[in-house]
Write a structure and sequence with these properties.
The chain is α/β, with parallel strands linked by helices and 177 residues long. 24% of the residues lie in helices and 26% in strands. It has 2 domains: 128 residues, Hexapeptide repeat proteins (UDP N-Acetylglucosamine Acyltransferase, domain 1, 3 Solenoid); 33 residues, no CATH class.
Length: 177
């Protein structure tokens, strides 16, 4: 029931922002705790097939200058198609995240990112291309980790499967479908 309420709230939240100018493409997924700047939603565009992990924040304004000079800074924010933004990341005003990017958890994106890169850190810096990231990810199973199906998800996992996963992941990272 809580999931239903959370999803209904999220839908209303997005609907209100869209009514005030937010542009959102198809297949947008936003996990719990995300914040899209409600003060300037018309300055934000989100592309198709975009995922925000939990607690992602998009800001189109920066009030750090308000007390100093009497004005806040504002800038457009654009998130391209096929983008993943990791847990707890913040995207600052006047930033464009290119198509096909991956932003690592707890990153602060203060400058625009070109298409097809992986960036992380505070401030976020480009670490590699998405192709390099894909190759590294494929190597995960060769270094001791397993590939796990839906039977390993929280809703359906058994105690025996939990134990199996713990043992197999002693040596490294795994992948789950």
């Amino acid at each position: 029931m809580l999931g239903f309420i959370r999803n209904a709230f999220k839908a209303l939240y997005l609907k209100r922002l869209i009514k005030h100018g937010l542009v959102v493409g198809s297949d947008f997924q936003m996990e719990k705790g995300c914040n899209i700047d409600a003060n300037f939603p018309w300055l934000i565009e989100i592309g198709n097939n975009v995922t925000f992990a939990s607690n992602v924040c998009l800001l189109a304004h920066d009030g750090s200058t308000k007390k100093l000079v009497g004005y806040s800074k504002v800038g457009k924010v654009s998130v391209g198609d096929n983008v993943f933004i990791g847990f707890g990341s913040i995207v600052m005003p006047n930033v464009r995240i290119g198509d096909g990017c991956v932003v690592g958890a707890n990153s602060v994106v203060t400058r625009s990112l070109p298409n097809g890169v992986v960036a992380a850190g505070s401030p976020a810096k480009v670490l590699m291309t998405v192709e390099e990231f894909e190759e590294r990810t494929k190597k995960v199973t060769k270094s001791g980790g397993g590939v796990y199906g839906s039977e390993f998800l929280r809703a359906s996992i058994t105690y025996d499967r939990m134990q199996q996963m713990r043992e197999e992941l002693d040596g490294g990272m795994g992948l789950i479908l």
